[in-house]
Amino acid sequence: MQLSETRYGKGKDLTPSTPGLRPAALRKHAKFGSCSSQEAREPRIIDLNAMDYSNFTLYVDESGDHSLESINPEYPLFVLAFCVVAKQDYRTRIAPEMTGFKHRWFGHEAVILHAHEIRKEQGEFGFLFDRAARGCFQDDLTVLMDRLPYVLIAGAIDKVRLNRRYAIPDNPYSIAMRFCLERAFSFLREQGEASGLTHVLVESRGRKEDAALELVFRRICDGTNTFGCRLPFEVVFVDKKQNLPGLQLADLVCHPIGRHLLKPEQKNRAYEVLKKKFPRGSREKSEGHGLKTFP
User: Fold this and answer.
1) Is the full-model pTM beyond 0.70?
2) Which stretches of sequence are listed as region Disordered (predicted)?
3) Is 54-294 in CATH node 3.90.950.10?
C-alpha cells in the first residue's frame, strides 16, 4: 500500500483558518519540497487540532549488543523491542500507573526503572538482595506489566548463526530495526493510523551512535523495506534523565524475550506476560509476526 500523497508526495497547503502553534508537521512539509522558497521564508502557523500525527507512539530499547566481532557466549543475541502505545493510554494508564508503582516502592517518581540494575540489585534496587522483598517487588512488577495497555513488537538476532550463514552479514541493529519498523507499520495500517506521522522514541547513546542509528532508520523509512514505500516514522532521541515511563517500559521487556529464546524450557514469568502483548493478526502464534527471530 502506498502512503498518502498528501503527506509524502505532492502535498497541500497546511495553513489553517484558525491560528495555533508551529509543530513538526510544518517542518516535514517543508522538507519534502512542496513549499516555494518565498513560502519557506515566511512564518506560518497551523492549528494543533489539524496536525497530521497518528494516535500512537513507539518506545524502543534493546538487550545485548550488536557487535559481530566479540560475541558473549552466554548471551549471543541482539534483541530490539518496540512498545506500541496509544497516546490516550499513555496519558491515562501507563504514566500514572508506573508513577504509582514507583511511589509504592520508593516513595517518589524520580527513580528510573532499569532492568539491568533490577537484576543485579544495584543502586536504588539494592534492597532486592532480600529474598522476600525481591519476591514481592517482582510480583508487583509482573502484575503491572500485565495490566498496562501496550502492543509489543520485537526482533531478535542470533549473532552466531548470522555469522555462520553469511560471509558478510548485515549489522544486527539494521536487521532488527527493519523487522520492527515493518511490523509496526503493518500494525498501524490495521488500526487505520498509517497516514499520520508516528514518533519513535529511543534512548540517546551519544552523538556518534545516535547519528549511526538515525542513518539506519532513515534508509529503512525512505524505502529500503518490504513495502517499497516511505514509512511514516520519525526518530526522537531522548536523554535517559528525562525519566520517560514509555522508555522504561521498553527497557523492561527486552531481556525476558532474550532469555526465553535462549532457554525456552526454563520458567519465565515475565515472558508469560509479554507473549500476550504481541500482535498475532490472523496467526495463532506470535513468532514471525509480533516476534521475529533471525536467521
Assistant:
1) yes
2) 1-22
3) no
